[in-house]
Design goal:
Elements (H helix, E strand, L loop, with lengths): L3 E9 L6 H10 L4 E3 L12 E3 L24 H4 L4 H16 L4 H4 L4 E6 L4 H14 L8 H5 L3 H9 L6 E4 L5 H14 L5 E8 L3 H4 L33 E9 H7 L5 E10 L12 H14 L8 E3 L6 H16 L6 E3 L2 H4 L6 H15 L19 E2 L10 E8 L3 E8 L2
Parallel strand pairs: 4-5, 4-6, 9-10, 9-12, 10-11
Antiparallel strand pairs: 1-7, 1-8, 2-3, 6-7, 8-13, 12-13
């Protein structure tokens, strides 16, 4: 079956808005957290988010938004977007340039796009309230396509004239990992030659604050302590938004165009916990099976995995569930891949997380380092025995495992291999 390679990356994240700044932040362990003004109220216990710098998308009118001048986006394009649509559109422009794609490479029946996002709660609420108060005749004709789940693929497919396969994925925090996985299969099965994988989240009050009701957000007021996966004192995740786009291409396309890929997306596995609607299985059974399925599908042994980019979000239950799964896959055999959670720097991007962190993994394979898991003062005893990095190691991994998990116990494991 055709091999699949990552040839382009684009980022708008809390730790940088391009590949070079993201790589520097990961290497130097610079986080993107700030006290978020809308949360600085007595009745809101969480205070910190991973902010997107250089963009202003607070208004419900996209024409009021501001963004870096390097991006030229037409009025008729931006007015049907959600905030995360803007982030992903800018990341898409980066990814196209990074992969050195011509216009003919982008718009043809052999090039598709899969996307993942949670929609825009801010715009959904605004347009719904407007309909109820003023009537449907006073509603924007673009209100639906700008706000509902699917807004990302609607807008990007139209803006970039995508003619191949297109689809949106919705499996909560595993969504963009699923998008990547099935995009891999589109290429390996010969259905497409190239796929864009786009993911984004608004990362604002309406997207993040509802998780306070689940008691899953960190209550720390110090941005340096808010996100600390695997630490015994962790108290929840820090929300963030942004956008990431990856370009996947077949081996033949890589050879035809003469480009140097970041790495190979070797394959993937998935499994479900079958346990709880919102909580990971305490023993990490679904995550363990997903990792085992990925290793089996790719014929990569556990001993070959050099680095694991963990899903670990800094929640009490989730981190331990994944740690137990990792011990089941690697510990009993004595293999000790390096492990870290880059959410310690970015926060949790929800449906964006899988694609964003796979992009990080591809980037660090080219740049030649493995980032540490930041802000650990006291490792949770349940994580003892795992090789959790505390600082950056200047060594390029040959094989990377990327874990993602979502509500309902959806688990995806992606395997990347040096090209």
């Amino acid at each position: 079956m055709p091999r699949v390679f990552i040839t382009g990356l684009g980022f708008v994240t809390s730790i940088g808005n391009d590949a070079s700044s993201v790589a520097a932040s990961l290497r130097e362990q610079r986080h993107g957290f700030e006290l978020y003004p809308p949360f600085q109220k007595p009745d809101i216990a969480c205070k910190v988010i991973g902010t997107i710098k250089g963009f202003s998308t607070d208004s419900v009118d996209p024409e009021d938004w501001t963004f870096p001048s390097r991006y030229a986006i037409k009025r008729e394009t931006i007015r049907s977007m959600a905030p995360h649509g803007l982030f992903a559109h800018c990341a898409m422009i980066q990814a196209v340039a990074d992969a050195k794609l011509a216009e003919s490479d982008i718009s043809n029946p052999d090039t598709g796009l899969f996307a993942a996002s949670g929609g825009s709660p801010m715009l959904t609420y605004y347009h719904h309230e407007r309909m109820l108060k003023l009537g449907p005749a006073r509603c924007s004709p673009l209100g639906i396509v700008a706000s509902i789940v699917g807004t990302l693929n609607f807008n990007l497919v139209a803006a970039f004239k995508i003619q191949g396969a297109s689809c949106g994925f919705s499996s909560a925090c595993a969504s963009s990992a699923h998008a990547l996985a099935y995009a891999h299969d589109e290429i390996s099965l010969g259905r497409q030659k190239r796929m864009f994988i786009a993911a984004g989240e608004d990362g604002n009050r309406d997207a993040i604050l509802p998780f306070a009701g689940m008691r899953t957000l960190s209550l720390q007021t110090d941005p340096n302590l808010a996100s600390r996966p695997f630490d015994v004192a962790r108290d929840g995740f820090v929300g963030t938004g942004g956008g990431t786009v990856l370009v996947l291409e077949s081996e033949d396309e890589v050879a035809r165009r003469g480009v140097t890929p970041y790495c190979e997306l070797a394959g993937w596995g998935q499994a479900s916990d079958g346990y709880n609607v919102a909580i990971s299985h305490p023993d990490g059974t679904g995550s363990k099976t997903a990792m085992e399925n990925a290793l089996k599908a790719t014929r990569i042994s556990a001993a070959e995995v050099d680095y694991v980019n963990a899903h670990a979000t800094s929640t009490l239950i989730g981190d331990i569930s994944e740690a137990r799964a990792l011990k089941s896959v690697f510990g009993e055999l004595g293999f000790r891949p390096a492990i870290s959670s880059t959410k310690s720097l970015t926060g949790h991007g929800l449906s964006l997380a899988g694609a964003m962190e796979t992009g990080f993994s591809a980037l660090l394979m080219r740049e030649g380092f493995m980032p540490g898991s930041a802000h650990i003062s006291n490792l949770d005893p349940a994580c003892e025995g795992l090789n959790i990095l505390r600082a950056t190691v200047n060594q390029s991994p040959k094989v990377v495992l990327k874990n993602s998990s979502g509500f309902g116990g959806a688990n995806v494991a992606l395997l990347l291999r040096r090209a």
